[in-house]
Design brief:
This protein is of the alpha/beta class. The chain folds into two domains: 8-178 and 346-373, Medium-chain alcohol dehydrogenases, catalytic domain (Quinone Oxidoreductase, Chain A, domain 1); 181-321, NAD(P)-binding Rossmann-like Domain (Rossmann fold, 3-Layer(aba) Sandwich). The chain has helices spanning 48-55, 106-109, 120-124, 171-174, 180-192, 207-218, 234-239, 252-259, 274-282, 306-310, 325-338, 355-362; strands at 8-15, 23-29, 36-46, 68-69, 73-81, 93-96, 135-137, 140-144, 154-158, 162-165, 199-203, 223-228, 244-247, 266-269, 290-293, 314-317, 348-351, 370-373. The strands form three sheets. Strands 3, 5, 6, 9, 10, 17 and 18 form a seven-stranded mixed sheet that branches. A six-stranded parallel sheet has the order 13-12-11-14-15-16, with helices on both faces. Helix 5 crosses helix 6 and helix 8 (252-259) runs parallel beside helix 9. The radius of gyration is 20 Å and the shape is globular. It starts with 7 loop residues before the first strand and ends in an 11-residue tail after the last strand. The protein binds nicotinamide-adenine-dinucleotide. Residues 47-49, 52, 179-180, 183, 203-209, 227-230, 233, 248, 270-273, 276, 294-296, 318-320 line the site of nicotinamide-adenine-dinucleotide.
Length: 384
Protein backbone atom coordinates (compact mmCIF):
# COMPACT_ATOMS: atom_id res chain seq x y z
CA UNK A 1 0.00 0.00 0.00
CA UNK A 2 1.35 3.43 -0.91
CA UNK A 3 2.47 5.60 1.98
CA UNK A 4 2.75 8.75 -0.14
CA UNK A 5 1.02 11.66 1.57
CA UNK A 6 0.39 9.59 4.73
CA UNK A 7 1.91 9.91 8.18
CA UNK A 8 4.24 6.90 8.66
CA UNK A 9 4.53 5.15 12.04
CA UNK A 10 7.98 3.64 12.56
CA UNK A 11 10.78 3.03 15.06
CA UNK A 12 13.29 5.67 16.13
CA UNK A 13 16.02 5.93 18.76
CA UNK A 14 14.94 9.00 20.73
CA UNK A 15 17.22 11.03 23.01
CA UNK A 16 14.86 12.39 25.69
CA UNK A 17 17.50 14.20 27.73
CA UNK A 18 21.25 14.92 27.41
CA UNK A 19 23.71 12.27 28.55
CA UNK A 20 21.25 9.36 28.90
CA UNK A 21 20.82 6.23 26.73
CA UNK A 22 18.48 6.50 23.74
CA UNK A 23 15.02 4.86 23.87
CA UNK A 24 13.47 2.99 20.98
CA UNK A 25 10.06 4.58 20.43
CA UNK A 26 7.21 4.36 17.94
CA UNK A 27 7.24 7.79 16.29
CA UNK A 28 5.25 9.40 13.51
CA UNK A 29 6.93 10.88 10.45
CA UNK A 30 4.86 13.45 8.54
CA UNK A 31 4.83 13.64 4.73
CA UNK A 32 7.39 15.96 3.11
CA UNK A 33 6.45 19.60 2.52
CA UNK A 34 7.67 21.78 -0.38
CA UNK A 35 11.30 21.11 -1.31
CA UNK A 36 11.44 18.16 1.08
CA UNK A 37 12.05 14.46 0.56
CA UNK A 38 11.02 11.56 2.82
CA UNK A 39 13.57 8.77 2.99
CA UNK A 40 13.45 5.19 4.21
CA UNK A 41 16.73 5.07 6.13
CA UNK A 42 18.51 1.77 5.47
CA UNK A 43 21.84 2.20 7.28
CA UNK A 44 23.29 4.86 9.56
CA UNK A 45 26.80 5.32 10.91
CA UNK A 46 27.22 6.17 14.58
CA UNK A 47 29.66 9.04 14.79
CA UNK A 48 31.69 10.56 17.60
CA UNK A 49 29.78 13.76 16.82
CA UNK A 50 26.47 12.10 17.74
CA UNK A 51 27.97 11.10 21.07
CA UNK A 52 29.33 14.61 21.67
CA UNK A 53 25.99 16.17 20.80
CA UNK A 54 24.15 13.86 23.19
CA UNK A 55 26.55 14.55 26.02
CA UNK A 56 26.77 18.34 25.85
CA UNK A 57 23.95 20.75 26.50
CA UNK A 58 25.31 23.50 24.22
CA UNK A 59 24.37 27.16 24.42
CA UNK A 60 23.34 30.10 22.23
CA UNK A 61 22.91 29.04 18.62
CA UNK A 62 24.29 25.61 19.57
CA UNK A 63 21.63 24.97 22.22
CA UNK A 64 20.39 21.37 22.06
CA UNK A 65 16.65 20.85 22.07
CA UNK A 66 15.16 17.61 23.34
CA UNK A 67 13.55 15.18 22.63
CA UNK A 68 15.76 14.64 19.64
CA UNK A 69 16.60 11.98 17.06
CA UNK A 70 20.36 11.90 16.44
CA UNK A 71 22.24 10.57 13.40
CA UNK A 72 23.59 12.49 10.45
CA UNK A 73 25.55 9.83 8.56
CA UNK A 74 23.25 7.56 6.58
CA UNK A 75 22.04 6.14 3.31
CA UNK A 76 18.52 5.23 2.26
CA UNK A 77 15.85 5.15 -0.40
CA UNK A 78 13.45 7.96 -1.35
CA UNK A 79 9.92 7.02 -0.24
CA UNK A 80 8.13 10.16 -1.48
CA UNK A 81 8.83 13.75 -2.45
CA UNK A 82 7.06 16.97 -1.57
CA UNK A 83 5.84 19.68 -3.98
CA UNK A 84 8.49 21.47 -6.08
CA UNK A 85 11.06 18.69 -5.74
CA UNK A 86 12.52 18.15 -9.20
CA UNK A 87 15.77 16.23 -8.70
CA UNK A 88 14.59 13.18 -6.71
CA UNK A 89 11.99 10.45 -7.24
CA UNK A 90 10.69 7.55 -5.15
CA UNK A 91 13.14 4.64 -5.33
CA UNK A 92 16.29 6.76 -5.67
CA UNK A 93 19.20 5.71 -3.47
CA UNK A 94 20.38 8.73 -1.50
CA UNK A 95 22.70 10.01 1.22
CA UNK A 96 21.27 12.78 3.45
CA UNK A 97 23.71 15.62 4.12
CA UNK A 98 23.96 17.99 7.05
CA UNK A 99 25.77 20.51 4.84
CA UNK A 100 23.45 22.01 2.20
CA UNK A 101 24.33 22.97 -1.36
CA UNK A 102 21.66 25.39 -2.57
CA UNK A 103 23.62 26.24 -5.72
CA UNK A 104 22.62 29.92 -5.58
CA UNK A 105 24.60 31.56 -2.76
CA UNK A 106 28.09 33.07 -2.88
CA UNK A 107 29.55 29.99 -1.20
CA UNK A 108 27.92 27.56 -3.63
CA UNK A 109 28.82 29.59 -6.71
CA UNK A 110 32.49 29.91 -5.74
CA UNK A 111 34.67 26.88 -6.42
CA UNK A 112 36.72 27.23 -3.24
CA UNK A 113 34.45 26.57 -0.28
CA UNK A 114 31.48 24.46 0.75
CA UNK A 115 29.93 26.66 3.43
CA UNK A 116 26.36 27.03 2.12
CA UNK A 117 24.22 28.43 4.93
CA UNK A 118 20.70 27.97 3.54
CA UNK A 119 18.38 26.93 6.42
CA UNK A 120 21.51 26.62 8.61
CA UNK A 121 20.15 28.41 11.68
CA UNK A 122 17.02 26.23 11.73
CA UNK A 123 19.01 23.02 11.27
CA UNK A 124 21.25 23.96 14.22
CA UNK A 125 18.23 23.95 16.51
CA UNK A 126 16.63 20.79 15.12
CA UNK A 127 13.97 22.02 12.72
CA UNK A 128 13.48 22.24 8.94
CA UNK A 129 12.96 25.37 6.83
CA UNK A 130 9.43 26.10 8.13
CA UNK A 131 10.62 26.03 11.76
CA UNK A 132 9.16 22.61 12.62
CA UNK A 133 10.33 18.99 12.64
CA UNK A 134 8.58 16.22 10.67
CA UNK A 135 9.06 13.67 13.49
CA UNK A 136 6.71 13.49 16.48
CA UNK A 137 5.90 11.21 19.41
CA UNK A 138 2.29 11.14 20.65
CA UNK A 139 1.78 14.64 19.27
CA UNK A 140 5.01 16.05 20.75
CA UNK A 141 7.56 17.44 18.32
CA UNK A 142 10.84 15.47 18.23
CA UNK A 143 13.74 17.60 16.98
CA UNK A 144 15.83 16.59 13.97
CA UNK A 145 19.58 16.59 14.52
CA UNK A 146 21.03 19.08 12.04
CA UNK A 147 18.08 18.60 9.73
CA UNK A 148 18.78 14.88 9.24
CA UNK A 149 17.95 12.43 12.14
CA UNK A 150 19.00 9.14 10.64
CA UNK A 151 18.40 6.99 13.74
CA UNK A 152 14.78 6.80 12.58
CA UNK A 153 13.43 4.33 10.03
CA UNK A 154 12.06 7.25 8.02
CA UNK A 155 13.16 10.86 8.00
CA UNK A 156 12.46 14.00 5.99
CA UNK A 157 15.23 16.25 4.68
CA UNK A 158 15.30 19.26 2.39
CA UNK A 159 16.16 18.68 -1.25
CA UNK A 160 19.37 20.72 -1.00
CA UNK A 161 20.69 18.31 1.66
CA UNK A 162 20.60 15.10 -0.31
CA UNK A 163 22.95 13.33 -2.72
CA UNK A 164 21.56 10.92 -5.33
CA UNK A 165 23.58 7.71 -5.74
CA UNK A 166 24.05 5.03 -8.34
CA UNK A 167 21.64 2.17 -7.72
CA UNK A 168 24.28 -0.54 -7.17
CA UNK A 169 26.08 1.11 -4.22
CA UNK A 170 25.80 -0.89 -0.95
CA UNK A 171 24.01 1.52 1.36
CA UNK A 172 25.48 0.04 4.55
CA UNK A 173 28.96 0.99 3.35
CA UNK A 174 28.49 4.23 1.43
CA UNK A 175 26.61 5.75 4.38
CA UNK A 176 30.10 6.54 5.75
CA UNK A 177 30.51 9.01 2.89
CA UNK A 178 27.80 11.18 4.41
CA UNK A 179 30.08 12.31 7.20
CA UNK A 180 33.23 10.90 8.87
CA UNK A 181 35.18 9.19 6.09
CA UNK A 182 34.40 11.88 3.52
CA UNK A 183 35.56 14.52 6.01
CA UNK A 184 38.97 13.03 6.80
CA UNK A 185 39.66 12.04 3.21
CA UNK A 186 38.67 15.50 1.96
CA UNK A 187 40.82 17.20 4.62
CA UNK A 188 43.86 15.60 2.97
CA UNK A 189 42.71 15.79 -0.65
CA UNK A 190 40.89 19.13 -0.80
CA UNK A 191 42.01 21.21 2.15
CA UNK A 192 45.71 20.32 2.43
CA UNK A 193 45.96 19.23 -1.19
CA UNK A 194 48.70 16.87 -0.05
CA UNK A 195 51.42 16.45 -2.68
CA UNK A 196 53.54 13.51 -3.77
CA UNK A 197 56.56 12.96 -1.51
CA UNK A 198 55.32 15.34 1.19
CA UNK A 199 55.61 14.74 4.94
CA UNK A 200 52.28 14.43 6.76
CA UNK A 201 51.06 13.85 10.30
CA UNK A 202 47.56 12.82 11.36
CA UNK A 203 46.55 13.34 15.00
CA UNK A 204 43.69 11.11 16.21
CA UNK A 205 42.91 7.80 14.51
CA UNK A 206 39.16 7.43 14.71
CA UNK A 207 37.22 7.12 11.44
CA UNK A 208 38.03 10.74 10.54
CA UNK A 209 41.78 10.46 11.17
CA UNK A 210 42.05 7.07 9.47
CA UNK A 211 40.33 8.54 6.42
CA UNK A 212 42.84 11.41 6.51
CA UNK A 213 45.66 8.83 6.54
CA UNK A 214 44.02 7.20 3.51
CA UNK A 215 43.84 10.60 1.77
CA UNK A 216 47.55 11.27 2.40
CA UNK A 217 48.37 7.82 1.05
CA UNK A 218 46.25 8.39 -2.07
CA UNK A 219 48.26 11.57 -2.70
CA UNK A 220 51.48 9.52 -2.44
CA UNK A 221 52.90 11.30 0.59
CA UNK A 222 56.38 10.04 1.45
CA UNK A 223 55.89 9.94 5.20
CA UNK A 224 52.56 9.67 7.03
CA UNK A 225 52.97 9.81 10.80
CA UNK A 226 49.89 8.55 12.64
CA UNK A 227 49.54 9.84 16.22
CA UNK A 228 47.07 8.56 18.80
CA UNK A 229 47.01 8.17 22.58
CA UNK A 230 45.81 4.59 21.98
CA UNK A 231 48.33 2.29 20.26
CA UNK A 232 45.53 -0.19 19.44
CA UNK A 233 44.61 2.14 16.58
CA UNK A 234 47.96 1.72 14.84
CA UNK A 235 47.32 -1.59 13.03
CA UNK A 236 44.46 -0.08 11.04
CA UNK A 237 46.40 3.13 10.44
CA UNK A 238 49.27 1.10 8.94
CA UNK A 239 46.82 -0.85 6.81
CA UNK A 240 45.44 2.42 5.41
CA UNK A 241 48.88 3.87 4.64
CA UNK A 242 50.63 5.21 7.76
CA UNK A 243 54.40 4.84 7.48
CA UNK A 244 55.10 5.65 11.18
CA UNK A 245 52.98 5.44 14.32
CA UNK A 246 53.63 7.44 17.47
CA UNK A 247 51.89 7.34 20.86
CA UNK A 248 50.82 10.85 21.93
CA UNK A 249 53.12 12.10 24.68
CA UNK A 250 54.15 15.66 25.47
CA UNK A 251 55.81 17.44 23.73
CA UNK A 252 54.48 15.59 20.69
CA UNK A 253 54.86 18.59 18.35
CA UNK A 254 58.59 18.73 19.05
CA UNK A 255 58.88 14.92 18.76
CA UNK A 256 57.54 15.16 15.21
CA UNK A 257 59.78 18.14 14.38
CA UNK A 258 62.77 16.02 15.43
CA UNK A 259 61.53 12.96 13.51
CA UNK A 260 61.19 14.95 10.30
CA UNK A 261 64.25 17.17 10.65
CA UNK A 262 62.25 20.41 10.84
CA UNK A 263 58.54 19.59 10.83
CA UNK A 264 55.87 18.15 8.56
CA UNK A 265 54.42 19.82 5.48
CA UNK A 266 50.86 18.95 6.52
CA UNK A 267 49.40 18.24 9.96
CA UNK A 268 45.77 17.12 10.16
CA UNK A 269 44.15 17.36 13.60
CA UNK A 270 41.33 14.80 13.85
CA UNK A 271 40.74 14.49 17.59
CA UNK A 272 39.00 17.68 18.75
CA UNK A 273 41.07 18.55 21.80
CA UNK A 274 42.63 22.04 21.96
CA UNK A 275 45.96 20.62 23.20
CA UNK A 276 46.20 18.29 20.22
CA UNK A 277 45.30 21.19 17.90
CA UNK A 278 48.17 23.27 19.28
CA UNK A 279 50.56 20.30 19.01
CA UNK A 280 49.54 19.71 15.41
CA UNK A 281 50.40 23.32 14.52
CA UNK A 282 53.65 23.00 16.44
CA UNK A 283 54.61 19.91 14.40
CA UNK A 284 54.57 21.76 11.05
CA UNK A 285 57.63 23.15 9.33
CA UNK A 286 58.65 26.81 9.27
CA UNK A 287 58.06 28.48 5.92
CA UNK A 288 55.17 26.53 4.43
CA UNK A 289 53.74 24.07 6.99
CA UNK A 290 49.94 23.78 6.93
CA UNK A 291 47.85 22.66 9.89
CA UNK A 292 44.20 21.74 9.28
CA UNK A 293 41.78 21.50 12.19
CA UNK A 294 39.12 18.87 11.58
CA UNK A 295 38.22 17.90 15.17
CA UNK A 296 35.41 19.89 16.76
CA UNK A 297 35.33 21.64 20.12
CA UNK A 298 32.74 24.15 21.30
CA UNK A 299 34.00 25.30 24.62
CA UNK A 300 37.75 25.73 24.55
CA UNK A 301 40.20 27.64 22.39
CA UNK A 302 43.46 26.24 21.05
CA UNK A 303 46.55 28.25 21.87
CA UNK A 304 48.43 29.66 18.90
CA UNK A 305 51.89 31.18 19.14
CA UNK A 306 51.60 34.08 16.70
CA UNK A 307 55.28 33.77 15.85
CA UNK A 308 54.55 30.32 14.40
CA UNK A 309 52.20 31.96 11.91
CA UNK A 310 54.63 34.80 11.21
CA UNK A 311 57.14 32.14 10.27
CA UNK A 312 55.00 31.18 7.29
CA UNK A 313 52.62 28.52 8.55
CA UNK A 314 48.98 28.28 7.50
CA UNK A 315 46.28 27.34 9.99
CA UNK A 316 42.91 26.41 8.56
CA UNK A 317 39.82 24.38 9.36
CA UNK A 318 37.20 22.43 7.47
CA UNK A 319 33.68 21.15 7.64
CA UNK A 320 33.09 17.98 5.66
CA UNK A 321 36.54 18.00 4.08
CA UNK A 322 35.51 20.92 1.83
CA UNK A 323 33.41 18.65 -0.38
CA UNK A 324 30.54 20.34 -2.22
CA UNK A 325 28.03 18.01 -0.66
CA UNK A 326 25.32 17.24 -3.23
CA UNK A 327 27.64 17.39 -6.20
CA UNK A 328 30.68 15.53 -4.92
CA UNK A 329 29.35 12.79 -2.61
CA UNK A 330 28.05 10.81 -5.63
CA UNK A 331 31.59 10.99 -7.07
CA UNK A 332 33.00 9.62 -3.82
CA UNK A 333 30.52 6.76 -4.09
CA UNK A 334 31.85 6.07 -7.61
CA UNK A 335 35.38 6.11 -6.17
CA UNK A 336 34.31 3.54 -3.56
CA UNK A 337 32.87 1.30 -6.27
CA UNK A 338 36.28 1.47 -7.98
CA UNK A 339 38.93 1.56 -5.28
CA UNK A 340 38.27 3.77 -2.24
CA UNK A 341 38.41 1.78 0.99
CA UNK A 342 35.33 1.94 3.23
CA UNK A 343 34.68 -1.60 4.42
CA UNK A 344 37.83 -1.38 6.58
CA UNK A 345 36.22 1.38 8.68
CA UNK A 346 33.19 -0.65 9.78
CA UNK A 347 33.90 -2.96 12.69
CA UNK A 348 30.37 -3.43 14.02
CA UNK A 349 26.97 -3.87 12.38
CA UNK A 350 24.02 -3.62 14.80
CA UNK A 351 20.24 -3.38 14.59
CA UNK A 352 18.54 -0.16 15.70
CA UNK A 353 17.51 -1.59 19.07
CA UNK A 354 21.19 -2.05 20.00
CA UNK A 355 22.19 1.52 19.27
CA UNK A 356 23.23 2.18 22.88
CA UNK A 357 25.83 -0.60 22.52
CA UNK A 358 27.30 1.39 19.63
CA UNK A 359 27.67 4.44 21.88
CA UNK A 360 29.23 2.37 24.66
CA UNK A 361 31.73 0.76 22.27
CA UNK A 362 32.68 4.14 20.83
CA UNK A 363 34.97 4.82 23.75
CA UNK A 364 36.34 1.28 23.91
CA UNK A 365 39.93 0.46 23.05
CA UNK A 366 39.62 -0.70 19.48
CA UNK A 367 36.27 0.39 18.04
CA UNK A 368 36.37 2.46 14.85
CA UNK A 369 32.84 2.71 13.51
CA UNK A 370 29.44 1.05 13.99
CA UNK A 371 26.81 0.92 11.27
CA UNK A 372 23.19 0.64 12.41
CA UNK A 373 20.85 -1.36 10.17
CA UNK A 374 17.41 0.12 10.60
CA UNK A 375 15.47 -2.78 9.08
CA UNK A 376 15.75 -6.51 9.64
CA UNK A 377 16.07 -7.17 5.93
CA UNK A 378 16.16 -4.83 2.96
CA UNK A 379 16.90 -7.11 0.00
CA UNK A 380 19.44 -5.71 -2.41
CA UNK A 381 20.45 -2.81 -0.22
CA UNK A 382 22.72 -4.21 2.43
CA UNK A 383 25.82 -6.34 2.15
CA UNK A 384 25.46 -7.48 5.75
N1 LIG B 1 35.07 19.10 10.80
C1 LIG B 1 34.18 18.20 10.43
O1 LIG B 1 33.45 18.36 9.44
C2 LIG B 1 34.05 16.93 11.24
C3 LIG B 1 33.36 15.82 10.71
C4 LIG B 1 33.29 14.65 11.48
C5 LIG B 1 33.87 14.61 12.74
N2 LIG B 1 34.51 15.73 13.20
C6 LIG B 1 35.20 15.71 14.49
O2 LIG B 1 36.42 15.02 14.28
C7 LIG B 1 36.87 14.47 15.52
C8 LIG B 1 37.21 13.00 15.33
O3 LIG B 1 36.04 12.27 15.02
P1 LIG B 1 36.09 10.66 15.08
O4 LIG B 1 34.70 10.20 14.75
O5 LIG B 1 37.21 10.13 14.29
O6 LIG B 1 36.36 10.48 16.65
P2 LIG B 1 36.93 9.25 17.49
O7 LIG B 1 36.57 9.49 18.91
O8 LIG B 1 36.48 7.97 16.86
O9 LIG B 1 38.50 9.35 17.30
C9 LIG B 1 39.31 10.25 18.03
C10 LIG B 1 40.68 9.59 18.16
O10 LIG B 1 41.55 10.50 18.86
C11 LIG B 1 42.32 9.75 19.75
N3 LIG B 1 42.89 10.59 20.80
C12 LIG B 1 42.39 10.92 22.01
N4 LIG B 1 43.25 11.72 22.67
C13 LIG B 1 44.31 11.91 21.84
C14 LIG B 1 45.52 12.62 21.95
N5 LIG B 1 45.83 13.33 23.03
N6 LIG B 1 46.38 12.59 20.89
C15 LIG B 1 46.10 11.88 19.78
N7 LIG B 1 44.97 11.17 19.63
C16 LIG B 1 44.08 11.19 20.65
C17 LIG B 1 41.39 8.67 20.27
O11 LIG B 1 42.09 7.56 20.82
C18 LIG B 1 40.66 8.30 18.99
O12 LIG B 1 41.34 7.28 18.28
C19 LIG B 1 35.75 14.74 16.52
O13 LIG B 1 36.05 15.92 17.23
C20 LIG B 1 34.54 14.98 15.62
O14 LIG B 1 33.56 15.76 16.26
C21 LIG B 1 34.61 16.87 12.49
Amino acid sequence: MSTTGQVIKCKAAVAWVPGKPLSIEDVEVAPPKAHEVRIKVVAAGVSHTDWEYLNQTGSGTKLRRFPLVLGREAAGIVESVGPEVTDFSPGDNVIPLFLPQCGDCVQCRGPKRNQCRKNWANAQVGVLADGTSRISFEGQQVYQYLGVSSFCQYTVVTDICLAKLRSDAPLDKVCLLGWDVATGYGAAANVCKVEKDSLCAVFGLGAVGLAAVMGCRAAKAKMIIAVDSNADKFAKARMLGATDCVVYTEPIGQVLVNMTDGGVDYALECDGSPDVMSAALESTTDGWGTCVIVGETETEAMSVTVEKLLMGRTLKGTYFGDWHSMEEVPRLVDDYMNKLKLDEFVDRNLPLDQINTAFESMKSEDSIHTVIHLWEETPGCCTK
